[in-house]
Structures are given as structure tokens and as C-alpha cells.
Design a protein that fits this description.
Elements lengths: L1 H18 L18 H24 L8
Length: 69
């Protein structure tokens, strides 16, 4: 079950990139909004940044087992 969910996730991840080619950004405020599939890349990098930040914070805040002894 877990393996099947990973495969489905990767399939949808790959399909998001060409899907961005068919979406028009008529009222782009910034120049990067006109680049196809930039939202997919930006979202992926943002998710990776959140994961790395959470792990780094957990490492910095983690206490030893005998902290209160």
C-alpha cells in the first residue's frame, strides 16, 4: 500500500510539470509568473525548505535523556 501511494505521488508530481504549460497567466504581476510550471518548482522547493528547517530545528532543540538528572 505504501509503495503504491509513493508511485501515485511521483506520477502526479511528474504530470504537474507539463500541466503548467497549458495554464495561461493573463494577469501576471511579476515576470516569473509568465514562466510555465514555475509554481510547481517553487512549491517543491518550499516544501523541501520546510522539511529541512523542521529537521534542523528538531536537532537544535532536542535534549539528552538525562537532562533532568
Amino acid at each position: 500500500m505504501k509503495k503504491a501511494l509513493k508511485r501515485i505521488f511521483y506520477i502526479f508530481l511528474v504530470l504537474c510539470i507539463p500541466a503548467g504549460l497549458f495554464i495561461e497567466h493573463e494577469h501576471a504581476v511579476f515576470f516569473w509568473h509568465k514562466i510555465p510550471s514555475i509554481d510547481v518548482g517553487f512549491g517543491f522547493l518550499g516544501a523541501l525548505l520546510l522539511i529541512v528547517g523542521a529537521r534542523l530545528l528538531a536537532y537544535l532543540v532536542q535534549r539528552e535523556e538525562d537532562f533532568y538528572d
